[in-house]
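Homework help board

Subject: predicted structure for assignment chain

Our instructor gave us this sequence and asked us to write out the predicted structure in token form, then describe one feature. I got the tokens but I'm not sure how to describe them. Can anyone check?
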Amino acid sequence: METMMAIVIGILFSIGVYLLLCQSLLRIILGISIISHATNLLIITMGGLKTGGPPLISDGFFSYTDPLPQALILTAIVINFALTAFLLVLAYRSYAVLGTENMEQLRGNDDE
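My token output:
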């Protein structure tokens, strides 16, 4: 299961990096979001994948699932939502004011 998750995480990271290298502002925002989701999957995979087991096991002693990766991912999801909302509003506002979403034109490196 961890091998399949590692492949999925690698694919998501490569898609995110590809979208970050595009010139469209909306694709850059989508790339940041995909990289964030890949990071969440990485944290969950590193925390250990348990399927079908209860979080508390009592076989003479109590064993429990580590709650730290879950807390980190919950925090990361909230931060990613806020960052995505902020970047979408920033992209909308820059398109409304400047009339373009192309990063080369936003930088002022127009060769025309």
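Reply (TA_rk): Your tokens look well-formed. For the description, you could write something like this. The first helix runs from residue 2 to 20. That's the kind of observation they're looking for.
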